[in-house]
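chain below, 137 aa
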Amino acid sequence: MYKGEIPYSPKTGEAMYYPENSYKWEYGGQEYDTWFEIERLYGEAATHAGGGMQKIIIQPDWRPNKPFRAVMKLTNMSRGRSAANFKMEDEQGKTYTMFMKDLMDLLQRYSMSKGYTECLEWCFCKRGQNYGLTLAR
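prediction:
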């Protein structure tokens, strides 16, 4: 089991595949999710240099890698630049990324029925700069 901390999105509360900052924008004492909301409401001058708009950097929320029990559903797959990943979803609707190696380990050790696992113990692993779901044991 990976002993380091895992990045979580401050916006969604879900574990992140890759730790990257997100942003909010502030103008006139109010926060906005995108800069173009400010531009739409106040015009181009608000978003240009000296217009008063401020960029707020939101860093990932780093948490300990604690094992947890859950039933997971295999929902999708995606391709990165050098890897294929699989998307898993728990019963609360939270999504997780799983590396192909870890999915193969899961399929060799446990059976799945209609895309669902039984209730198993999970944690996170780190491969390169990325984080993914894996079996805890």
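Residues 100-109 form the longest helix (10 residues). The chain has two domains: 22-58, 63-135.
thats it, cya
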